[in-house]
Specification:
By secondary structure, the chain is mainly β. The protein has one helix at residues 111-117, and strands at 2-13, 19-27, 53-56, 65-69, 72-78, 86-94, 97-100, 121-127, 135-146, 149-152, 155-158, 160-165, 174-177. Strands 1, 2, 3, 4, 7, 8, 9, 12 and 13 form a 9-stranded antiparallel β-sheet that branches. Strands 5-6 form a two-stranded antiparallel ribbon. Strand 1 and strand 2 (19-27) form a beta hairpin.
């Protein structure tokens, strides 16, 4: 495949590895034979989602799961000038959405007031604590879209969904490894 374009969905659950589900599309090319590589594998263990620093709007939410979907629209670029009729793919749009399942606590963060106000808040989660194995996921301007109630072991929660917007251009969400 050449000229690949893609999108990603991130799912994190308490005590588990964070999963990144990538979807790529690209132009196919003829297969060729090559010698098998001799890879050197890194022995670093990926961090589990424990001791993470998750916050929404500065609120250190008591949550057990989060998700972030980059929502890239992948459009095929057809062309009669190409032998297979496909020039490649292009990202034509993006709508980043996410969700968290925080314990309901109106004394520290009033989800319903935030929904009514329509204000944007930052979503951040830092996973891992060892240098070279830290993942920071950030979305600077998120707006709640639906905080219905849920239940976790008899404790009231919100299944809070949000959409992410740009603040200074093309910065709805970032993933940084350090």
């Amino acid at each position: 495949m050449i000229g690949g374009k893609g999108t990603c969905k991130i799912d994190g659950k308490d005590g588990e590895l964070v999963v990144l589900d990538w979807t790529f599309k690209g132009k196919t090319v003829a297969e060729s034979q090559a010698a098998a590589p001799a890879p050197t594998y890194d022995s670093t263990e990926p961090p589990t989602l424990l001791g993470a620093a998750l916050a929404y709007g500065g609120w250190a939410a008591i949550a057990t799961a989060f998700s972030l979907d980059f929502g890239n629209d992948l459009a095929r670029r057809d062309s009669m000038n190409e032998a297979n009729g496909v020039l490649g793919y292009m990202i034509t749009g993006r709508k980043i959405t996410g969700s968290i399942d925080p314990q309901a606590d109106p004394t520290t963060f009033d989800v319903w007031a935030a929904l009514k106000a329509g204000d944007s808040d930052a979503f951040t989660v830092t996973i891992g604590g060892t240098a070279g194995n830290i993942i920071d996921i950030d979305a600077a301007a998120c707006v709640l879209t639906a905080p219905p109630y849920g239940d976790r072991n008899g404790i009231v929660t919100h299944d809070a969904a949000f959409t992410c917007a740009e603040t200074t251009g093309d910065d709805e969400g970032t993933i940084v490894y350090t």
